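Input/output pair, single chain:
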Amino acid sequence: MNKIFFTIFITILLNHCGFSPIYVGNSKEIVISKSEIIGDRNLAFDLEKKLNFKKDEKNFNAYTFKAQIYDAAENSIIDSRGIATEELIKLTVSYQFEDKNGVVIYQDAITKDKRVAVSDNIQNNVLVKNNEKKILLDGIIQNILFKSKVSLN
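Output:
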């Protein structure tokens, strides 16, 4: 008898404690009328594809998304012969959302970097760097999606 009473009491107490998840529910979808992305063509294509904002040019409340992608590599470790054995790859995406009148609603810049070992094989180095840039871009995209949903809603 006590177990049944205790179970009912706990169930009622937990159901009416006021807890509700923060990030569950109908979050407003971000709608853009157009996007303008400047920078490396492959990275720009990946950025636009993976952001996957809903496009609607006729929507009165749609934003214009503008972004610039900057990538750089600098030698970070040089061996005794003066040949680079490690490079620091930096990827920066500067972006903004504008309303229909061209007023900036939200803007930000996100930078990520990674150290990459390099060798005498130039073709392999290019492949490794491009792969690492795509991985860095994926992390930046997740930040853009989170920040834009929080800031624009």
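The longest helix spans residues 122-152. Residues 2-152 form a domain with the Double Stranded RNA Binding Domain fold (CATH 3.30.160.150).
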